[in-house]
Write a structure and sequence with these properties.
By secondary structure, this protein is of the alpha+beta class. It has six helices and six strands. It is 29% helix and 25% strand. Helix 2 packs antiparallel against helix 3.
């Protein structure tokens, strides 16, 4: 399961228990900081070319299974879309995974937003704190915080619906990448994080 443009979009965390997850050999705090940097770059459409190079080179130093592309650095600098594909490949298609901790969950009032998508729900854990505004929770993620029980929705249809879900969540939430523990293994997943508390103050990542 290595190489660029792998086709495992349809396999789930359950199906991939034997997968070689390269980030499991990286200290959690360092990998978490790397995910924060990736998220910040994605939110800015990968415009900081120097930082793009840095995060890709760091992943290679961590022995991430990235195909050898002769003009990789030039293509990364010129094409944000290509950069997004490289990141997607490195992280085993995180766009197919969503951490759900509030009203999108089955049985909750806003489940209709994702109800028509074909996929699987997994019990999972993330590190962080939940704060409520009325009945609406928002997550502040931190790798120093205790683990919270959440759900992860895995669906190969999610990438076609992110714009719609982003619009529903609104400007108070940012869709960012965090580690979630599913069946005992860490997976990078998207989550809707409260905008005013991103990035976490204890992350060690400069804004």
């Amino acid at each position: 399961m290595t190489g660029f443009d792998r086709e495992e979009k349809n396999w789930s965390p359950k199906d991939a228990q034997g997968a070689n997850l390269w980030w499991e050999n990286v200290p959690l705090n360092k990998w978490s900081q790397w995910l924060i940097r990736v998220s910040n770059l994605r939110l800015n459409n990968f415009q900081n070319h120097q930082e793009v190079q840095e995060i890709i080179q760091q992943a290679i130093r961590w022995e991430a299974p990235l195909i050898k592309i002769s003009d990789l650095e030039k293509r990364l600098a010129k094409d944000p879309g290509f950069t997004s594909k490289v990141i997607d490949d490195l992280l085993f298609h995180p766009g197919t995974r969503l951490v759900v901790y509030g009203t999108l969950a089955p049985g909750k009032c806003n489940h209709w937003v994702v109800a028509d998508l074909v996929g699987q729900w997994y019990p999972a854990q993330v590190c962080g704190r939940l704060t409520y505004t009325g009945i609406i929770p928002y997550l502040t993620w931190s790798f120093h915080a205790p683990e919270l029980d959440v759900l992860v929705f895995h669906s190969p249809e999610l990438p076609d619906h992110w714009n719609r879900i982003d619009d529903f969540e609104g400007p108070c939430y940012l869709r960012v990448l965090i580690p979630a523990r599913i069946n005992g293994r860490l997976w990078p997943c998207f989550v809707y994080h409260w905008e005013s508390t991103w990035p976490p103050e204890d992350s060690g990542v400069e804004t």
